[in-house]
Amino acid sequence: FFFSGRETKRMVRVVxxxxxxxxxxxxxxAFSPNPMLSRVIxxxxxxxxxxxxxxxxxxxxxxxxxxxxxxxxxxxPEELRDFVKAAANKLVIVDVRNPDASxxxxxxxxxxxxxxxxxxxRPQALHxxxxxxxxxxxxxxxxxxxxxxxxxxxxxxxxxxxxxxxKNGFTSVLNGGGPKxxxxxxxxxxx
Length: 191
Hints:
The protein is α/β, with parallel strands linked by helices and 191 residues long. Helix content is 40%, strand content 14%. It is built from six helices and six strands. It has a four-stranded parallel beta sheet with strand order 4-3-5-6. Strands 1-2 form a two-stranded antiparallel sheet.
């Protein structure tokens, strides 16, 4: 969705006022005598809140996403920031996305936003495809105590890769989600 300048101002107001009205909506849903209304309000308050808008003067697209919408196991942006800072140049990013659209069609959207690692592009990243059939991936030839952040497009296979690496003896692994998790991606996506 793209909005004009006037609509952008309205959207910004809505986003800024949202934290004040969410508790009221949640409270109303808890005491509503109508179960359907209660379900609708609850779903509305917990659904992904994404507002995408483009300013007439700025061609950047902004996506506002509530942090509670991250997939299970995806680390918080603050945790990733601290992890990246502590790891410094020892950090390894493990990208488990599959460029083959016939195998993982969903990865095509994230590949358009964030390329696979190669050469100067994302120099601290390894590309190790997560195989759903074997429920595994190649084990990286790096020390077991290397700080690692796994990711896919949004965090599902990133979590599987994290669990897999930990089962294979790696001791310092976080799931960074992926390009869909813009706040998380900002902490390590360029590495």
